[in-house]
Amino acid sequence: xxxxxxxxxxxxxxxxxxAHGVSxxxxxxxxxLDESGQYVxxxxxxxxxxxxxxxxxxxxxxxxxxxxxxxxxFLIEDILERLPPGPQAAKAAIDIALHDLxxxxxxxxxxxxxxxNPDRLPLTSFTIAMDEPARMALRARESxxxxxxxxxxxxxxxxxxxxxxxxxxxxLRVDVNAGWTREQAARLIPRLKQYxxxxxxxxxxxxxxxxxxxxxxxxxxxxxxxxESIKTSRDIALHAAAIDGVVxxxxxxxxxxxxxxxxxxxxxxxxQIMLSCMVETSVGVTAAAHLAPLCDYADLDGPLLIANDPYxxxxxxxxxxxxxxxxxxxxxxx
Length: 334
Known about the structure:
Elements: E1 2-18, E2 21-35, E3 39-45, H1 55-65, H2 76-82, H3 88-106, H4 110-113, E4 126-128, H5 133-143, E5 147-151, H6 157-167, E6 171-175, H7 182-192, E7 197-201, H8 209-218, E8 224-226, H9 233-239, E9 245-249, H10 250-253, H11 256-268, E10 272-276, H12 282-289, E11 297-299, E12 311-312, E13 315-317, E14 320-322, E15 332-333
Parallel strand pairs: 4-5, 5-6, 6-7, 7-8, 8-9, 9-10, 10-11
Antiparallel strand pairs: 1-2, 2-3, 12-15, 13-14
Helix pairs in contact: 1-3, 5-6, 9-11
């Protein structure tokens, strides 16, 4: 199998502001896995700056391991085990491309290989990045979607939630992206509860397990989900007693294989599960969507945030996700 990396610059429909910073473009990579010209698998790696990723770093990793993949994509466990330490997003690109290639070899979509029912996908939320409260409210109203995720972590957090709630009757979820201190969380969570918040993602710093445990013990009545704190299934086991739910992303786990492990570990600890994404094209998001029937919640709106997605895959009927029936991922060039 021949691995060819490809850089891609993604233009965002609106500036994406969250507690980590603001961006108008994202810089991802594709991994093309060519099996003697007969079948080509594709995967995606999304650059995650707060994990130390860069686009050149992902491209360099893919180039360095290109001759370690062997000839048989069905030996995926052996292939992934041979990979040296490196960016999880680059490993995800390889893992996704291998799964795509396997599906194409047997002529079946991935959800069938996983034994899953595509009619059981949860509805996806739609993300509204931090902005002036009135602008966020306008985006929520214009979206017309039934589940809104609000990015928080600034100095107008309650005002932003209040404005969005005033503009829509949608279910609301908030994502702080590790932007609060313990004191801020203890003050704000009880206040935000009045706006009928479904759950809160990552209120505290990623390393503050004890803080998450303390928040849960306060019993504020709003479930706490961990995102930045969780990368792999091992992290889920370490955090299980401190949280109510976990956010699983292929770019954190290193692909579909470890994401599936993480889902099973979360279930074993009676945690709720949201399958989510970074800012990814239809390649990465479609790959994740094939696992979504196993999860309680979905936050797979990446393609809706991008103005120049080069592929088509999972379709959006409002908040409903519709998986493609093509073999492998089922994505095609736009």
